Amino acid sequence: MKNGERLATGDACFFYSENEFGVYQGAAIAVYDGPLDYERVVADIDAKLDRLPRLRQQAVPVPFHIAHPSWEFDPDFDIHNHIIPLQIEAPGTYDQLLETAARLSDDYIPRDRPLWRTYVVNGLEHGCSATVNIIHHALSDGGGMQAYSEVMNDLDPNPTRGKPAPREFPPIPSAGTRFARGIRDDIVNFLRLLANVPIRIGCLPRVLMSRKFWTGWRIMLRYLTAPTVKMPYNAHLSGSRAYSWTKVPMAEFQKVRRTHHGTVNDLFLTIVAGAIERYAHKHGIQTEGKHCLIQAPVDVRPPEFEEALGNHVATMSLTIPFGIADPVERLHVMNERTTEAKKVNLGWGMHIFLETWRNGVTPPIARWLRLAFHAPISQRLIHRLRPRPTLHVCASNVAGPDGPTYLAGRECILHIPLGLVVHGCGFFGTAFSYNGEFYFGAATDKETAPDVDSMVEFMIEEYDQLMRAAGVMRQGPAPTIAPMPPGPQPRAHTNGSSKKRVAVDAALLQSKDAEPQS
């Protein structure tokens, strides 16, 4: 991986869209079965960084933003800036850990260094420890997180590894050099776009005559025009997140899925859609004759990028009617909609459309458009006008390792995806499979949707209904909110509004006070 590689427009837009009300940083918690030795964690991860050189690169802006930022090796890279020890005060509860993770994921990673951090957390109850892993979306999507996880963890508790080779990185190019390279890349991109115009025009008649094209447009038109409702979290966001989650045995989840003849993702999306309707009713919102709007990321990662970072993701836009009382019927409708979208390759089609649009717009214009739309004054104006919401949830499902993983000799016993919230929609549904367990949960905006536990409660109730309808015997304890080791321990319902501060060593967090570069 060379220096100077330009961020794609889609990656760069994750920078351009950020403001004080939200950062595009994903997060996850991994809990381990004993205390973690910080120096060993550092040594183990440092020895594996050569697998992903981008973890040593920072996104360097171009003067006047004439081009998108470029990936440049950090000449002053210090792994201790990215693996940070953190001690939670007694009693070290898992509620404290979850609140700490929420606050850490809300803070900007300084832009003058690589865009990832791992906090090594000791002092948890029951003698456990944890890591809070934070990575910027410009660096990777959910699929790339697999490669990131493989650098963070091992499949063997005591793997053999040699010492890392000495590393020397060139200095970051000067502003003048970066500006000249930006002009060059803009010209090359424009010429490439012009060269492709005849090819695209030649393909246009065949595309317009294809059934897939018109079916795809019908799906998108249905999504854009379906009558819907505005949820409390379809509002001006606060910039603070709240998290909640649960887990069920993967074998049990698969039995329910096979009985109802759907996919794992169909079952997860059905659970989320049902939970949203229950949440609407809780807040007195009438859903009769309305539709739930779901965006489900689709991995379009080519085989050659399976073990690399970066964004290779498209989106399926799904419209599911509210008011379907039978959860099995809702699952069948979900399966019909996702199957229809897959048949016309809707996710890939949207990916091509957006990439064509993005590459056809010069970086300065792309940046100015995104900044203008996501500026605080624009967002306030949009929400005062009360437009039709564009989505009710973005729901991401990522498959993880089938067996246990280890860090510094400790086994990972829980792997909790936390997700992020996006402008205009303060609810993100997450799902992750790890070591025979299926984790799913919610990330919400803490002010517009403080009752994040309620959302997960409703997800559990929807899953239980589908499980009973399938006649599947429960293969473990009933799912509860945040079931932490050593056994299921239902947590009190704080509705995400606890006023207590979680004490952490402030000296260890000084480096996270930097503001993002515009």
Strand content of the residues, in percent?
Answer: 15-25%
Distance, first to last CA: 26 Å
Reading side by side through the largest sheet, how are the strands ordered?
5-6-7-2-13-12
Q: Name the shape in a single word.
A: globular
Major sheet details:
6 strands, mixed
Q: Order of helices and strands, N to C?
A: EHEHEEEHEEHHHEHHEEHHHHEEEEEH
- Radius of gyration, in Å, reads 23 Å
| Mean pLDDT over the full residue set | 82
Helical/strand content category: alpha+beta
Question: What is the β-strand count?
Answer: 15
Question: Percent helix among the residues?
Answer: 25-40%
| Poorly predicted runs of 5 or more residues | 487-518
Number of helices: 13
Overview in brief:
This protein is an alpha+beta fold. It has 13 helices and 15 strands. The strands form 3 sheets. A 6-stranded mixed β-sheet has the order 5-6-7-2-13-12, with helices on both faces. Strands 8-15-14-11-9-10 form a 6-stranded mixed β-sheet, sandwiched between helices. A 3-stranded antiparallel β-sheet has the order 1-4-3, with no helix packed on it.
